[in-house]
């Protein structure tokens, strides 16, 4: 579920004009942050797409989470943590922002609540999509559980 408060905190992060992680986030909020040169992305939405693709692609470019999809201690400082933040099944909400106030660079951040990346926990349960949707949810066209309300 999209969360405007998380978007606001992500906006505060990108307005710092650095890819360094925010130090002031509560422990239950996690952050992905990425910079995109404006020469590579003409519009804000292009920068957002590039950042999301970058984070998602980390799953195939580093020592992975394995067939059991378990987040291990070795993943804490690894680039795969960007992918697992996006894929973490129990994350309830997210909010993202793109800053254009940083000269020739777009800065993109997404904040996730309740953040994942818990050592020795599964990133997501393997199985048939939507087979475990809670009561009051339905399977949408993207094969994700979505609230009926």
UniProtKB/TrEMBL annotation:
<dbReference type="InterPro" id="IPR035940">
    <property type="entry name" value="CAP_sf"/>
</dbReference>
<dbReference type="InterPro" id="IPR001283">
    <property type="entry name" value="CRISP-related"/>
</dbReference>
<feature type="domain" description="SCP">
    <location>
        <begin position="1"/>
        <end position="120"/>
    </location>
</feature>
<dbReference type="InterPro" id="IPR014044">
    <property type="entry name" value="CAP_dom"/>
</dbReference>
<dbReference type="Pfam" id="PF00188">
    <property type="entry name" value="CAP"/>
</dbReference>
<protein>
    <submittedName>
        <fullName>SCP-like protein</fullName>
    </submittedName>
</protein>
């Amino acid at each position: 579920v999209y969360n405007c408060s998380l978007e606001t905190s992500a906006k505060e992060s990108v307005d710092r004009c650095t890819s360094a992680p925010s130090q002031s986030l509560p422990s239950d909020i996690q952050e992905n942050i990425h910079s995109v040169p404006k020469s590579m992305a003409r519009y804000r939405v292009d920068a957002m797409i590039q950042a999301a693709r970058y984070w998602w692609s980390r799953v195939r470019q580093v020592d992975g989470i394995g067939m059991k999809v378990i987040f291990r201690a070795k993943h804490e400082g690894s680039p795969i943590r960007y992918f697992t933040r996006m894929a973490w099944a129990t994350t309830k909400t997210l909010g993202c922002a793109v800053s254009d106030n940083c000269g020739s660079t777009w800065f993109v951040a997404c904040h996730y609540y309740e953040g994942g990346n818990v050592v020795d926990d599964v990133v997501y349960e393997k199985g048939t999509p939507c087979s475990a949707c809670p009561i009051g949810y339905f399977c949408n066209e993207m094969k994700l559980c979505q609230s009926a309300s």
